[in-house]
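We store chain and fold; thus.
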Amino acid sequence: MSSLRDAAMTSKAWPFEEARKLVKRYEKAPPEKGFVLFETGYGPSGLPHIGTFGEVARTTMVMRAFRVLSDIPTKLICFSDDLDGMRKVPGNVPNPDQLQQYLQRPLTSVPDPFEQYESFGHHNNAMLRRFLDTFGFEYEFISATEFYASGQFDEVLLRAAEKYDEIMKVMLKSLREERQQTYSIFLPIHPESGRVMYVPMKSVDAANGTITFDTEDGEEMTLPVTGGAVKLQWKPDFGARWAALGVDFEMYGKDHSTNTPIYDRICEILGQRKPEHFTYELFLDENGHKISKTSGNGVSIDEWLTYASAESLSYFMYQKPKTAKRMYFDVIPKAVDEYHQQLRAYAGQDDAARLNNPVWHIHGGDVPTSDMVVPFAMLLNLASVSSAETKDTLWGFIQRYAPDTGPETHPGVDKAVGFAVRYYNDFVKPAKTYRLPTDAEREALEALRAELAAYDEPLDDEALQSIVYAVGRDRFDPLRGWFTALYEVLLGASQGPRFGGFIALYGVSETVALIDAALAGELTG
């Protein structure tokens, strides 16, 4: 452990860089609460999206890194802001019109449009927990509704009433003049209608722990700030939650970054040390738009798991969190193959290199061995040229190429084969566009066909790649044009695999027949 810890102290992997901040935070004395608390927040206004998973996955990576560096226990809390009023009806739920009457009601007081749980908030919380449990995250779930109603937030809410003017001063600086006139950090919940009310305060009585205000109908009302009768506006809530729980680390998207000084200052006003935080770039769809829970754009967690493994998604989340990521279906094959490349590299690495390898952070040091004898991208190309509708079709090619493999002995390959068939039929097949070769490309394809027809050596990726390379080198400058022609004319795609490996897997005679079909115009027909 000592050599691993020594390597971790200098590792440039971003989770270790963040974890070292927490080590420094408690270098003089451990936390009084007995553990270092990591938190991730979730706004259940819509179905959980892949960015939510990414936040928990990345926070877990920092927590795992901290455990290498320190013996202080850790805890991860996933906090759901389900007491928030429903500001608008999501567009991706059944019968959205029926939810209009519940606008401004806390999400845990809105009926579940899916008719599965006691409220829409409970439904979305359950979906989040199911997704997180799929990945085996260690976390404690806290519902804001329960947190407020149970009294766990009372001490901090009473302190917020006591420090009301100081907190308001922080908030008013960040608001437009028009908004300043009606703003309050407290949002009363109407005891009859259940609506979250955005109304100014007439008075805040810190001694009695109450607020007085006029309702939207003009009726004066006094409510306690405790017991769930009142909630905090979302920015004060952020800092107050840090103070109430004693949060040591939280990460969030770039859209929160301008609010960080506000969250920090409110936490400090309420008597607690501000946490360490990490701001990540946002997830975008293929058109460059921010992924949104309510619009349902981008790739969902369930959709990724339909076409690839959970580990490949974790790999995608590990990579460059400070860089905006386009999150759409075309990124999946690349993530799968890069994940397995890193698995294969891990076995031969020393401690320092292993701690910089994404798979260490994905698996917490308990890294499996890759059994992928064929890259995922190659399986997709194989599915494409063979028009694979079932796994059996692909296994026929794989077992000829690697006779010692099979679904029982190589379960990872078997899962990948299933994913490849699904991905091919849903994404590759509809987009396949073949073209006829140019005269120069036709001549090169005829030359390649002749070389392959005469080939009588064992199937060998490198030998076949050398043939492909030699045919192209004599005819194309730059050589990239030759490979582009192979992909577009033979595979109906703009990019593809290392072609010698593809021939070895698909078969030499089968590739000859494929070239014949392309030259005869049968693939474009």
The mean pLDDT is 91. The first strand starts at residue 36 and ends at 42.
